[in-house]
Amino acid sequence: MFSTGALLQLLGCVLWDNWWPMLVGIMYVLVPMPYLFFGSTGGEGYAIYGSSIQSGWVDAGKFLTGFSAVGSIAIPAILAHAKIITIGALIMELAAAVVLGATVMTYDYFNSRDNYSY
User: Fold this and answer.
1) Is the pLDDT at 48 greater than 80, yes or no?
2) I need a surface site. Which of 25, 56, 86, 97 has the fewest CB within 10 A?
3) Number of Cβ atoms within 10 Å of the Cβ of 21
4) C-alpha count within 13 angstroms, C-beta hemisphere, residue 78
5) What's the first-to-final CA gap in the chain, in angstroms?
6) How far is Cα 116 from Cα 1, in angstroms, rounded to an integer?
7) pTM of the model
8) pLDDT one-digit tens code per residue, 70-98
9) Are strands 47-48 and 51-52 parallel, antiparallel or unpaired?
């Protein structure tokens, strides 16, 4: 699934001979970074008013991850609105975003399962 999404991303640039949509490729690299830096804290943290200190960092990481994910959809839409890329390239980029998003969700689903009974 990941290679299909990457292929759609690349085809969105090659078929319309315009490499501006590759800006979204930078966003695909940046999307998991805030969650990796802020969201994967171990331990329980200190209790302050019923919550932990670390939950604020986890929430900040989730917010920045969501903000980056929205940017990966907004960048091709803005480029198409400004007539920098064509509608066909926009559709190809959005299809790549859907496939890559489904890949992440599928990985998360199977990774979160504790039992591996088939």
Assistant:
1) no
2) 56
3) 25
4) 9
5) 22
6) 21
7) 0.77
8) 999 999 999 999 999 999 999 999 999 99
9) antiparallel
Instruction: Report d(CA 27, CA 48) in Å as an integer.
Output: 35
Cβ neighbours of residue 9 under 8 Å, at least 6 residues apart?
21, 22, 24, 25, 28, 92, 93, 96, 100
Answer whether residue 50 shows pLDDT above 60. no
Phi then psi for 85, rounded to 5 degrees?
A: -120, 160
Query: Could you tell me what percent of the chain has a pLDDT over 70?
Result: 82
DSSP string, 75-113: HHHHHHHTTSS-HHHHHHHHHHHHHHHHHHHHHHHHHH-
What is the predicted pLDDT for the residue at 79? 96
Residue 94 · residue 73 · CB < 8 Å? yes
